[in-house]
Amino acid sequence: MGTQENKQIVTRWLEAVNSGQNEKILDLLTEDFLFKTMARSPEWLKYRWNKEQFAAAPEAQSTLLESPIRMEQVNLIGDGDLVVLEAQTDAYLKNGKHYDNAYSLIFQLRDGKIEEVREYSCSHLVVECFGEFNPDNPAAARAGKALTD
Q1: What pTM does this model have?
Q2: In CATH, what number is assigned to the domain containing residue 32?
Q3: Which residues pair with 120 in a beta bridge?
Q4: Nearest one of 107, 125, 124 to 116, comparing CA atoms
Q5: pLDDT tens across 7-43, in order?
Q6: Residue ranges making up the domain that contains 87
Q7: Where is the signal peptide (predicted)?
Q8: How many domains does the chain have?
Q9: 29-37/82-88 β-pairing
Q10: Bridge partners, residue 126, by sequence
Q11: pLDDT at residue 142 above 60?
Q12: 80 φ/ψ sector (left φ>0, alpha ψ -120 to 50, else beta)
């Protein structure tokens, strides 16, 4: 697929995230999909998620927020099978913490599907707001204080 088609796939992913449609997210991912956070610290934040965990994350994260997570596109650039989405969020957790993160998401596509996503974002803010986030159990946090402060 060409750059424009791949950018459209990433745009569909963003729309599915913002509308809470896990099945649509799953439909855009390859069977061997991998999500990686590129955080350097803390060690537990170096997530490696499969497609099910990645698709579940927006809905699971939204359970901790005052309203569902929304990512706003800032820039979208591509070159062949590589698409980079610059995005931002601005939300409040139920515990009152402000989550206003900025992201660079690098999408690697293959045959019209997303094969890998590498996320660069403020890991300090993630730890402060969420603790150790687990899409399979969003209420459980390694840094329990992060969700209750």
Answers
A1: 0.87
A2: 3.10.450.50
A3: 104
A4: 107
A5: 999 999 999 999 999 999 999 999 999 999 998 888 8
A6: 3-148
A7: none
A8: 1
A9: unpaired
A10: none
A11: no
A12: left
